[in-house]
Write a structure and sequence with these properties.
The complex is a heterodimer of chains A (80) and B (569). Chain A has 80 residues and is mainly alpha-helical. Chain A has one domain: ACP-like (Non-ribosomal Peptide Synthetase Peptidyl Carrier Protein, Chain A). Chain A is globular. By secondary structure, chain B is α/β, with parallel strands linked by helices. Chain B folds into 3 domains: 257 residues, Rossmann fold, CATH 3.40.50; 70 residues, Roll (Luciferase, domain 3); 110 residues, 2-Layer Sandwich (GMP Synthetase, Chain A, domain 3), CATH 3.30.300.30. Chain B is 33% helix and 23% strand. In chain B, strands 2-1-11-10-12-13-14-15-16 form a 9-stranded mixed β-sheet, sandwiched between helices. Chain B has a 5-stranded parallel β-sheet with strand order 4-3-5-6-7, sandwiched between helices. In chain B, strands 17, 18, 20, 21 and 22 form a 5-stranded antiparallel β-sheet that branches. In chain B, a hairpin with a 5-residue loop joins strand 21 and strand 22. In chain B, helix 1 packs across helix 2. Chain B starts with 9 loop residues before the first helix and ends with a strand. Classes of the chains: A mainly alpha (80), B alpha/beta (569). At the A-B interface, helix 3 of A face helix 9 of B.
Chain lengths: 80, 569
């Protein structure tokens, strides 16, 4: 089973790939809405990609109130 | 469709619909690529009546208030019908609010019953004020086996075999209490009567007909007035079907269009823009020759549908585009916030008319909507049949506050005659929006008179509601404003909130303070965040009860500072 640290790293890598930004520009505590300039629908798109990668299902409501990569990784970790 | 003039209540009309079209599909619940449930009108009734019976066994009476906090799914509509069947007053609460906010509105609404999804109930049970919850019966859906429900009952097991007794209501009786704002300040619970809904439904379905075979894709929260009307009452009273999608992910919305041959869908501007972005990208990725052909077909369609839409022609000309939407799409509706005219035109040119509407919960949803006779991208359309709209104190350009009057306007904000009297004057609803009616009778909107913003997700954000997040800041006083309220602007896009900080005497706005401010701001949901702060050195004007005189403070700020004084966060 992956550690939270490796899950966070994977989430950052997937986000960088998905939104075409250099990985090193993203940090675990970044507010992804602000940093990536995205809206909630675009964040949901990322969530779909994350689901496919980790082979899990995350209901939309899991993203409710989440705006940084670390918390997102924690939500994923709970379902791994 | 049913002749709604013959019915006195939503319960009576829905009951007649369930009998009228027993074998038509009325409701499909899908989640991603799965179909969770499918009901004919008869099956829907068979699912709802045992719940209604159990509600009555638990003491549910005519006028009992019952709240629902759920995402879009079949149990939402089944529960709502059972509540109306029993003569209840429905309180649809926003599932996206925090649990503490939901508790606050549950208390304010005096709801005795609550139907709630398990994950939301779990959050409510964990709030500090959970013990204060006065709701008598709580029904929790989809709770895992063995879960601690804190005294609540399982929705799936809350059934009774005996035939429930239908409870009639009158047209002037309350049907719903819908909160338009007030989670942090003064709750505004709009009381909407059965007549409000029946009249609105008649007006909307006259413009955009529903009938058996029509499928409406419901992705906006059903607790919002617009989806409650167009994604429940409208289709059900016409024998049509509602497709609930339990995710807003763009790829699954696209799949739902083709799988269910969707006829109508309502979206907020953000979703429409997202669809536009996706389509533009797909067009741009086409080989050069195919792209040229497509552009020529779009231009042809635009020229041939200038006067009014011609679905058959558009579907023939732009077969692949319409195929991607399932081939049966008649129109999209957009509302809740400002939509760029270029986006509306983009879809119209593809042969997909977008009914751009304007309204608010207080008006029973829609005030004006585009009727496509002809299509106009630059307005929010004409008043609905039965709705009067006038412009108050128009300036030289004809722009003033929009007021509306008709049978769909709410009767009051519950338990608050003071704000009701401010909102409804001589029978006219004061919308707080600025607009102009043009020569063709179309309403154009130009900005707001009131202190609030609307996001592109269609969320109305009132500054008072988020001020609690900043309580305890190390300043003498603070106040949140919509930037366009401080400095009026004739635009409805890119609206932002700013906080005005008045430091203690002799102190400046320190880095620590800004860090604290930014930290608190981040804990707010992303669409509720303030964009910047403003330093202010004078005492705020206060009322005798020590409340801030917001209008007066705004006037002082407006006179002394301009937008450049705002420091971005």
């Amino acid at each position: 089973m992956s550690s939270l640290q490796s899950t966070t790293e994977e989430v950052l890598r997937l986000a960088a790939e998905h939104f075409k930004v250099p990985r090193e520009q993203l940090a675990p505590d970044d507010d992804f809405f602000k940093k990536l300039g995205i809206n909630s629908l675009q964040a949901l798109d990322l969530l779909t990609r994350i689901e496919h990668h980790f082979k899990i299902e995350l209901p939309d409501y899991e993203l409710q109130g989440v705006s940084d990569f670390r918390t997102l990784a924690e939500r994923i970790q709970l379902r791994l | 469709m049913l002749d709604l003039r013959e019915y006195r209540s939503l319960g009576e009309a829905l009951r007649a619909a369930l009998k009228r079209w027993p074998n038509e599909v009325c409701l499909i619940e899908a989640d991603r690529e799965r179909e969770n449930a499918r009901f004919t009108y008869r099956q829907f009734q068979e699912a709802a009546l045992p719940l209604a019976s159990a509600l009555q066994d638990a003491g549910f009476q005519s006028g009992t208030r019952a709240a629902i906090i759920m995402t879009n799914q079949s149990k939402w509509l089944i529960s709502a019908y059972a509540i109306f069947f029993c003569g209840g007053v429905l309180v649809p609460l926003d599932y996206k609010l925090t649990a503490a906010e939901q508790l606050q509105l549950l208390a304010h609404s005096k709801a005795e019953f609550l139907v709630v999804e398990y994950h939301l109930w779990r959050a409510i049970m964990q709030t500090e004020r959970f013990e204060d919850l006065a709701t008598r019966v709580v029904l929790v859906t989809e709770a895992p086996g063995g879960a601690d429900l804190g005294g609540a009952r399982r929705w799936e097991e809350f059934i009774a075999a005996r035939e429930p007794v239908f409870t009639p209501r009158n047209r002037q009786d309350p049907a719903c209490i819908v909160y338009s704002s007030g989670t942090g300040g003064r709750p505004k619970g709009c009381l909407l009567t059965h007549e409000n809904y029946l009249e609105q439904c008649m007006a909307l379905t006259a413009l955009y007909p529903f009938s058996p075979g029509v499928r409406y894709l419901s992705i906006l929260p059903t607790n919002h007035a617009i989806d409650f009307m167009i994604g429940f009452i409208g289709p059900f009273t016409c024998g049509a079907a509602v497709v609930h999608l339990r995710t807003l992910r763009p790829e699954y919305i696209r799949e739902a269009f083709t799988r269910y041959k969707i006829t109508y869908m309502t979206v907020v501007p953000m979703i429409l823009k997202n669809l536009e972005r996706g389509l533009r990208q797909r067009f741009a990725d086409l080989p050069r020759v195919r792209r040229g052909v497509l552009n020529a077909l779009i231009a042809t369609n635009r020229a041939l549908t200038r006067r009014r839409p011609n679905l058959r022609l558009s579907r023939a000309l732009l077969r692949q585009v319409h195929g991607a939407f399932g081939g049966e799409l008649r129109a999209l509706f957009v509302g809740g916030a400002f939509t760029e005219p270029s986006t509306l035109q983009f879809f119209y040119d593809l042969g997909i008319p977008v009914g751009n509407g304007y309204g608010c919960t207080e008006a029973g949803t829609v005030i004006t909507v585009n009727d496509f006779k002809p299509f106009r991208a630059d307005t929010v359309g004409k008043p609905l049949p039965g709705m009067e709209v006038k412009i108050l104190s128009p300036d030289a350009e004809g722009i003033g506050e929009v007021a509306a009057r008709g049978k769909t306007i709410m009767s009051e904000y519950i338990d608050d005659p003071e704000i009701t009297a401010q909102a409804i004057v001589d029978g006219w609803l004061m919308t707080g929006d600025l607009g102009r009616i043009d020569a063709a009778g179309h309403l154009q909107l130009f900005g707001r008179k009131k202190n609030m913003i609307v996001t592109e997700e269609g969320k109305n954000i009132y500054p008072e509601d988020i001020e609690t997040a900043f309580e305890g800041l190390a300043v003498k006083e603070f106040c949140v404003f919509a930037a366009n309220y401080l400095w009026p602007a004739r635009t409805l896009s890119g609206e932002q909130l700013v906080i005005v900080l008045h430091p203690e005497a002799g102190q400046a706005i320190s880095e620590d303070l800004v860090r604290n401010l930014a930290g608190r701001n981040r804990r707010l949901l992303n669409y509720k965040r303030i964009s910047g702060y403003l330093g202010w050195e004078r005492d705020f004007p206060l009322t005798a009860s020590l409340k801030i005189k917001r209008g007066e403070l705004a006037e002082q700020i407006r006179t002394n500072l301009d937008r450049s004084a705002v420091v971005s966060l």
